[in-house]
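Q: Here's a chain of 175 amino acids. Please give me its 3D structure as tokens.
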Amino acid sequence: MGVEPPARTTAAAGRVGLEPARLRAWRGFIEAHAHVLGHLSRELDEEEALPLTWYDVLVQLSEAEAHRLRMHDLAARVLVSQSGLTRLVDRMEDAGLVERVRCAEDGRGLNAQLTPAGLETLRRTYPTHLRGVRTWFADLLTDEEADVLAVALDRIAQHARPPAGPEGTGPTDGR
């Protein structure tokens, strides 16, 4: 038999510098994130035949000015690599939900543009997604918990977000 790794306890975690409450918060965040996204993905796929990643692209484009974003900005918003987004947009373009258009500002870059069919798909699938967000997340929080969680997660996201602009991979619009 091989050597057993040491048992992971909150006491052991405290010895390496992570307090028990922070360890619980971290593990809770990771587990909740995985399970909630799994439920949301499954519901959209089973009820609407739409992958969650596609839904996310549709939301990001619908919220953008003129329903379009530069490809690298969209990649940062949906948290996928540039090459992963290219393949994703290829499939969505084949389905008629988005289209690529030349960037009017410089003519070199490409924007992803929401099509009327993409907007209609978003409108049709939104109730399913919203129901899932309520069921698996929002309705489980009190108003006070939602406020505290929003502040904490905003701070964490802001700290972890890549720098904006050409040097970083983050959006250039200050997001």
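Q: Can you summarize the key feature?
A: The chain has one domain: 19-160.
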